[in-house]
Design goal:
alpha+beta; Ubiquitin-like (UB roll); Fumarate Reductase Iron-sulfur Protein, Chain B, domain 2; two-stranded antiparallel ribbon; 10 helices; elongated
């Protein structure tokens, strides 16, 4: 067991006008997680410390925050991976670019609103089959990575394009659009492409790869967005050819 220093960005809307830094010293094993440290601080040192947590197993995405300058999940981040010695300070901040509520908790409403705009559900008005809509293993593999997104917000809040343009859909919403546009059972490709190809959509992505670097599920988000761009261009060119024929 070693004594580690947690430097946490605090903000209490009832008492603070701007965020402040506070340090805590916690005895932990190097193999414990950052989330374990936060729980120890809240339970034994300062019960007012506020952060989100739920599954604690990298599934819900609740404990997303900035850890030593990089977005990630506190439940997936081991102490030994961010503190190479007991002298190393572990710095924790709320996710950037989202409205701050308290301490490490941000308002996720703008993030979820962006996801809602891309119609994040299967749309198929054809008569349903007797049992289910089948999909080949190859077709399922095309959308496999995008399905593993846990909507933690790490990608969108790390995107410079989103920092500059809060109307930008962001990588998470675009990945969600990909998940359904490339689903062979869905029938609303054109409707979704129209939504993502607008001024605050697809073309705001400049392939900086911040989203890929911070994704806790290691999804190639930028690669998926590139495929969306390619499909959008093909659809646009196809439409122009059809107009010329008429």
């Amino acid at each position: 067991m070693n004594n580690y220093t947690f430097r946490i960005k605090r903000f209490d809307p009832e008492n603070d006008t701007v965020p402040r830094w506070e340090e805590f010293h916690v005895e932990m094993a190097p193999t414990e997680r950052v989330l374990d440290g936060l729980i120890k601080i809240k339970d034994s040192v300062d019960g007012s410390l506020t952060f989100r947590r739920s599954c604690a197993h990298g599934v819900c995405g609740s404990c997303a925050m900035k850890i030593n300058g990089k977005n990630g999940l506190a439940c997936q981040t081991l102490i030994k991976d961010v503190s190479f010695s007991p002298d190393t300070v572990i710095t924790l901040e709320p996710l950037p670019a989202l409205p701050l509520i308290k301490d490490l908790v941000v308002d996720m409403a703008p993030f979820f609103e962006k996801n809602d705009k891309v119609l994040p559900y299967l749309i198929n008005n054809e008569p349903p089959p007797e049992r289910e809509r089948l999909q080949s293993p190859e077709d399922q593999h095309t959308i496999l990575q995008s399905i593993t997104c846990i909507m933690c917000g790490c990608c969108t809040s790390s995107c410079p394009s989103y920092w500059a343009d809060k109307e930008y859909l962001g990588p998470s919403a675009l990945l969600k659009a990909y998940r359904f546009i490339f689903d062979t059972r869905d029938r609303s490709t054109e409707a979704r492409l129209e939504r993502v190809a607008q001024v605050h959509g697809l073309w705001r992505c400049h392939s900086i790869y911040n989203c890929v670097e911070v994704c806790p599920k290691e999804i190639d988000i930028t690669g998926h967005i590139a495929k969306l761009k390619s499909l959008s261009v093909k659809k646009a060119l196809s439409g122009r050819k059809s107009l010329k024929k008429k």
